[in-house]
Amino acid sequence: MARQDETTVVARDRVPTIDVALVRRLVATQFPPWADLPVRPVAVDGWDNRTFHLGDELTVRLPSAVGYVPQVEKEDRWLPVLAPRLPLTVPRPVARGVPGEGYPFPWSVRRWIDGETATIARIGDQVAFAETLADFLLALHRTEPAGGPPAGAHSAFRGAPLATYDGETRRALAHLGHRVPGGEVREIWAAALGSSWTGPLVWFHGDVAWGNLLVREGRLAAVIDFGCCGMGDPACDLAAAWTLLSGAARRVFRAALGTDDATWARGRGWVLWKGLITLDNPDPVRAAEGRHMLDAVLADWRATG
After folding, report:
1. What is the mean predicted confidence (pLDDT) over 9-21?
2. Across all residues in the chain, what is the average pLDDT?
3. Dist. CA 127–CA 272, nearest whole Å
4. What domains are defined for the chain?
5. 244: confidence class by pLDDT, cuts 50, 70, 90
6. Apex CA 63: angle with CA 275 and CA 90, to 5°?
7. Is the separation of the CB atoms in 197 and 235 below 8 Å?
8. 276: closest CA among 250, 305, 298, 247?
9. Neighbouring C-beta atoms of residue 46, cutoff 10 Å
10. Phi and psi of 125, rounded to 5°?
């Protein structure tokens, strides 16, 4: 299945500066009752969208490139459907803006959700966190599809066959050379590619990453950013097993989900792909994140095969 690398999309289609001044103009012209509310950037921003506080109770999210535009309508359409079926707080759409003030895409206004991003240091009890996350994912995966969007470009091909990322994975592996144990990595990748999802399409989140999981007092409280959601293979939602969890918490997470060996291998493959391309990054902070993912995958492979 063909896809464009994110770097290609960014280079060609990323819009000019998205800043506080732009958001103020958009809000003032399209939603005058909110014109006097203060606008400020969020503490931790994403890549697909730029997000800003609007007063104390709202956020404004603007796609950063044309490839992310379909996520606006998708989230507005499906979040109200999914929210009542999920055991944790998820974003609540409030309004949708249109292109204007030199900004070329639709954009959205959401309710603000209090919480801190779920770094390892902020998780109070990893086992309890694993159980809560597994309960959330089970509820999501069991939600009736009812016409939801199959995996594709809108989901960055999360939920699609893992082979979509085969070329990118092999290029990163070749470029990394001796910095990674190539033989083991190839074995893990081959095991991940050795099966495919044969069950019915199920809802998946698509980006269960630390920045999209919010904790309050050390406990998982909310899941945000459903831009990569859709219907397909839920293996992509297992990523937290290797990015945030370890030891007993990882085992509890897998047991609570009832994940079979093939799905676990594909989930590990998703994190392997992400770890390799992130490790192969000139930014030392990003590269360190990639190293953490790769080390976790290797440790799990060595322990369980």
Report:
1. 67
2. 93
3. 23
4. 6-111 (3.30.200.20), 116-304 (3.90.1200.10)
5. very high
6. 75
7. yes
8. 298
9. 18
10. -135, 110
> Under DSSP, is residue 41 helix (H, G, I), strand (E, B) or coil?
strand
CB-based contact 106:73 (threshold 8 Å) = yes
The answer to whether residues 67 and 47 touch, using CB atoms and an 8 Å cutoff, is no
Other CB atoms within 10 Å distance of the CB of residue 158: 27
CA 276 to chain centre: 17
**pTM for this entry:** 0.91
Question: What proportion of the chain, given as a percentage, has pLDDT over 70?
Answer: 95
pLDDT at 3 over 70: no
If phi > 0 it is left, if psi is from -120 to 50 it is alpha, else beta; for residue 177 that is: left
Contact assessment for residue 256 and residue 131, using Cβ atoms and an 8 Å cutoff: yes
d(CA 214, CA 64): 22
42-46, 58-62, 79-83: least confident range: 42-46
**Separation of CA 252 from chain center:** 22
State the amino acid at position 255 in one-letter form: A
| Residue of 285, 291, 305, 297 lying closest to 176 (CA atoms) | 291
Q: pLDDT band at residue 11, thresholds of 50, 70 and 90? A: very low
C-beta of residue 164 within 8 angstroms of C-beta of residue 239: no
Residue with tokens 């990394």: 176
Which of 122, 300, 157, 175 has the alpha carbon at shortest distance from 236?
Answer: 157
Q: 48 to each of 233, 249, 265, 268, how far by Cα in Å?
A: 22, 30, 27, 23
Which class for 247: exposed (0-12), middle (13-18), buried (19 or more C-beta within 10 A)?
Answer: exposed
| pLDDT above 90 as % of the chain | 90
User: Per DSSP, which regions of the chain are E strands?
Assistant: 39-41, 49-54, 58-63, 93-97, 107-111, 116-117, 202-204, 213-216, 219-223, 230-232
Q: Enter the tokens of residue 281.
A: 């990054």
Looking only at the bridges linking them, the beta strands covering 107-111 and 58-63 are antiparallel
Report, as an integer, the average pLDDT of 43-47. 78
